[in-house]
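Q: Protein A?
A:
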Amino acid sequence: MKDLYIDFDGVIYNSIEVSYKMAEDEKISKDYESYYQFFKNLDWCEVLEKSFEINDAFNCIRKIIDSGKFKVFILTHVVSMKEAMVKIDLIRKNLEDVIIIPVPKKVSKNKMVKVKEAILIDDYPENLREWAMDGGYAIRFDLDMDGKGFPVIDRLDEVIEMF
């Protein structure tokens, strides 16, 4: 059984798209610190209310679990405890049997868990590059099927046939 880590924003929920639009509407400077402060103070309840589940993600995760091939974790970057709590509440309403690992935004995901031989499904290429460099399997989630050098899927349950 392989460890499978699934990103939240941009993979399970389109919350990254919604939050970036909110930053744009607020005319937030695109430098890292301005974005970090914006996201730290963001109303994540509002973000998730305006967001939607991507391609039946929760049912796909149930199928992945039922396949018996993977131990599934949700590995999500957060900038505040409020963001972590809101995401955890949403995930728990849909999935009771996965471990959720909030990762402080300033820490790389590959520094939080054992990466070697583990799988990461993420939409952000830099997370995937770091994961692969540490000996993990990196799979890009992208609705346009642009892998950017990585194997790519647009439905989470596609991972079942890959391993």
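Q: Protein B?
A:
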Amino acid sequence: MLAFWAKFIIYPLLGSFLGYTTNWIAITLLFRPKKKIMGIQGILEKRKPEIAKKTASVIREYLLNTEELKKIVDKEKVKNSVDQLIEKSLTALPNTGKKIISKGLREIIYLYFFDKDGFIKSDILQLALSDSDLEKIIEEKIMNYELQEIEEIVKKASGPEISFILLSGAVIGFIVGLIEAFLPI
């Protein structure tokens, strides 16, 4: 009789342990082993160039591209910077023609550099930094990180999610173990 009830404790606990452990192994295999051992190597180390390229592409396509940069550039700061640059550049001129030239330069710059909403024109921004340049910068940044640093970044960014994955494995394993306990032998 004790053996009959023991399986309702042992199977779920064993299932929880196995579910947690398999998820922990899967997450660990993302980063380790750093060097190939018996043909096994952490996926991030093994495929770092591909992952960096794909990550940079996704970031550029969905998160940070010249269109998004255009939106976040502070229009007023740019206009103030243009005004200061013009004033600084025209300091050597006599005051009589300075005001006219200054106004003309501002109007030309505003006309050619800014759209009707006051944002920097896309083609101007593309000349300074293209989407492919942005993608290359992101890819290089990722490639320059050591694997340990990438692991720390991933853990910082997804700490609660990793814990949830581990806990989910334990819960699912517990449920499977409980089902197993109810199955006839």
